[in-house]
Each structure stands twice: as C-alpha cells, then as structure tokens.
Specification:
The structure is a homodimer. In chain A, 51% of the residues lie in helices and 8% in strands. Chain A is α+β, with helices and mostly antiparallel strands. Chain A folds into 2 domains: 84 residues, Glutaredoxin; 121 residues, Glutathione S-transferase Yfyf (Class Pi), Chain A, domain 2. Chain A has a 4-stranded mixed beta sheet, covered by helices on one side. In chain A, a hairpin with a 4-residue loop joins strand 3 and strand 4. In chain A, helix 1 packs parallel to helix 3, helix 4 packs parallel to helix 6 and helix 5 packs across helix 7. Chain A is globular and about 50 Å long. Chains A and B meet through strand 4, helix 3 and helix 4 of A and strand 4, helix 3 and helix 4 of B. Chains A, B: This is Glutathione S-transferase. Chains A, B: InterPro entries: Glutathione-S-Trfase_C-like (IPR010987), Glutathione-S-Trfase_C_sf (IPR036282), Glutathione_S-Trfase (IPR040079), Glutathione_S-Trfase_N (IPR004045), Thioredoxin-like_sf (IPR036249). Chains A, B: GO terms for molecular function: glutathione transferase activity.
C-alpha cells in the first residue's frame, strides 16, 4: 500500500521500497509515517502485532517493538522510532524536521522525548493497554480508575501545549518540526481511544486541527483498528 | 566539583561551565557524564532528587527528570539525555561517539534506545524503584519477586551483549560509541544495586572491565549514594 504519491526525484532511495512494520494504533509508528510522508519517502505498510512475539520479527528487532523499517534488498532493519527519524533527517534533505542551531535542535529533541516518554507513559500507553491490549490479548475489561487518571494527565499535557502555542507558532519554534509530528502522533492515538477532551484547550485544538488537514495525516485518520472504533470527532478536520 | 581535568582547548564552551543536575544512581545522567568526560567537556555536578519535585527544577525541565544540563550564563537548559548527547556530538568534534555511515549511526542509536528503554524498563528501573526509591522515599521494603524478575531479565540482556561482543569489538561496531556508554551506564547502576551476576557472561564481563578502567568511568565508580552500599566487586577493575 502506498502512502500517497511522491515524485521519484524526492525519494531517499530511488527504486527501493521500505517496509514499515507497524500496527494502526502504534504512536511511534505514526510519528515515523508522518515524517516519511512529509519527506516524500515511499514505504509499504506491513502489519505487525508485537505482542504476538513472532520469531522473525524478533530477528529484525531484538527489542521486540514496532516500528521497524526494513529494506529487504540491502538486508537492513532500522529500529527505534527516534533512530529511524534521525536516519531520514540525515539522508533526505527535503522538509528538514530537526532544524536550526544546535540549541534549537536540542529543543526539538527535548519535546520529542517529552511526548515519546512522558505523554506515552502518562496517557497513550495506559489508554492502549486498557482499551486495546486488554481487549485483544487478555480479553479483560478496562480499569476505569486507570482510564480516569490517563485522561486527567492528558489535560496537563494539553495545558503545556496551550502554553507553547501561546508563545510559538509551532511546538518547538517558528517552523514545523519533529516535535509537532511526535506530539500529533501520540495525541491522535489518545484521541482515537477517547482519552482527549478538547474543551478548554483552544490553542492545542487549533494547532492540532491544522495538523489534521495535512496530506501526511489524512491516511492515518482514515485507518481503523479492528474491533475498536474512535469517537465521531476523531477524523473530522473541523472538530 | 570538577569531573577530572581537561585542557582548555578541548572545551566545547571555553570559559563557560555547565551545571549537570543529577543524582549518583541515575543511569541517564551517568551516560551524559561519560560522554562529557570522553569529549573533555568540563561540568559541575549539582545534586537533584527529582522525586522531591522542586519548583525551580520543574521550571528548567517540565518533564521533571534528570539529567538537565544548565548554562546559567546563556540561560539555556538542555533536557533529555539523548538530546543532550546529540547536542555535544554536534558541537564538540573530539571523540565522536555517533560515528560512521547513516546506517552505522542508526545502529548506534538503536542500541542506545535498547539500553535506555528496554534495559532500564526490565532491569535498572525496577532495581532503582525497589532498592532506592522505596527506601529513600516510601520507607518500604523491596519486593523480592520484582528483584528476582529484574535479575532474570539482566541475564537475557547480558546474553545479548555476549552475542554482540562475539561479533564486534564494541557493541555497535569496530569503535567505541554512545551505545557502549549507554550500556555501561545502565549496567553500572544495576551492578551497584546487586542486580548483576557476571558468571557465565565472559564476553560481557571482558567488555565491561575494559570500560571500568577508563578515566571517564573511574569518578562514577568512586561515588556512593547515601544509605545504599554496592557489592564489593562493584568498583574493582579486575572483578
């Protein structure tokens, strides 16, 4: 499956097609997909459920996690979403997403880590565990206490985004960066799982709605994870 | 406190002194300290217990985590250990630690993530929680079931290091890299907390003992966390 058409000249590896191992609600795979799409790098989607612990998948990534970006021709497997993003920053000039002075680049990477680690640990990770893993893997009901705490912490993260957008056009500064992609990827998964209450977050909602209308984001919003349905506002650009 | 003498010409920011906010058993601060020392960047150690939630500390890093590297003269705070390491790779040429082709750099970053996330999540994180945080913060006893599981998983990680060192001189390839610093930082904390059984890990032990004798590592091994003592072999170079 192609992630949108891109001119051949814009490809990082002309004639070669990367295979992205992922599942639809993985926020780290979403970050990589947004970056690849913004940079015009073509890739195929390969579905991987890391919780099934497939031997062939562990052979590609001993950490047992998605995303993995595999190039069968060269026999290369890139693992870890931040390592993958740095790789494409280094090899594809188009739409630089870790840009500016060293201090500005450190600020972009700080925010990427904040969303990859803190937002995921506080919000999208617990939501995925309660609403997806428990349902698909353990056949258990979600723990409403854990869900409430994740939604409470989501508000704190959205207040921080409100604050940043009060001071800057984009999360890390004057231009769109990997920080925006990382944040949007995490938030989109939390939003799919019903964990985001947008009321009282005007700035964050404005920033996110601009994102939702980007061509790189549309394919993500149209995908569905089996058995789990998103709320009605999830894929609406004006919501 | 100085982290060893370095010639002025080798400093990334001559005449300026970075302040590193950390506590002695933070594996991420240890990784940054190893990198700064290998690169000859001077810094002062500032003690921070992130679990105390100091307002001034949260103002520097909204994620509330160490390490933070602060430059009071420029009013800059660098947060997140990987962002800090990338910053010094970009600004200080000496002893490049994310080196080689883009694929090799991706391999270094994959392994850094493996130790920062998987080893920490499986081994050093649970050990720190059970043996340090519970004692210092909650005044509770460690859960022996959690400790046993962390030590079991430590063996799996050491087997992977054995495997890597069977195929390469250093973890990510032919030269020392940030992957070695990240792994040694995590392992040193787990070893301090009695979580590492070196028997049956000849390759990993050989690699680690070379590391322990490096000038960048010696200051770390001589420090002690209040009330918690390491096992006798911890700081011995030949152990």
């Amino acid at each position: 499956m192609l992630a949108g058409w891109t001119p051949r000249a814009a490809l990082g590896h002309t004639g070669r097609m990367w295979q992205l191992y992922q599942f639809p609600l993985c926020p780290f795979s979403r970050k990589v997909r947004l970056l690849l799409s913004e940079k015009g790098v073509e890739y195929e989607l390969w579905r991987e459920n890391p919780w099934e612990g497939r031997d062939e998948f562990f052979a590609m990534n001993p950490a047992g996690r998605v995303p993995v970006l595999h190039d069968p021709e060269r026999g290369i497997s890139l693992c870890d979403s931040r390592a993958i993003c740095e790789y494409f920053e280094e090899t594809v000039d188009r739409n630089q997403m870790i840009n500016g002075t060293s201090v500005q680049r450190a600020e972009i990477r700080r925010l990427v880590a904040l969303f990859d680690e803190n937002f995921f640990g506080d919000v999208s990770g617990p939501l995925l565990h309660e609403r997806m893993t428990k349902r698909l893997v353990y056949r258990q009901s979600p723990d409403s206490r854990v869900l409430r705490e994740a939604m409470r912490l989501a508000h704190e993260h959205l207040y921080y985004i409100d604050y940043l957008i009060d001071h800057r056009p984009w999360l890390a500064g004057s231009t769109m960066s990997l920080a925006d992609l990382a944040a949007a990827a995490q938030i989109s998964v939390a939003d799919y799982l019903g964990g985001i209450d947008w009321s009282s977050h005007e700035q964050a909602r404005g920033w996110y709605s601009v994102f939702k209308s980007r061509p790189s984001f549309r394919p993500l919003l149209s995908e569905r994870m089996e058995v789990i349905q998103p709320p009605s506002h999830y894929a609406e650009v004006d919501a």
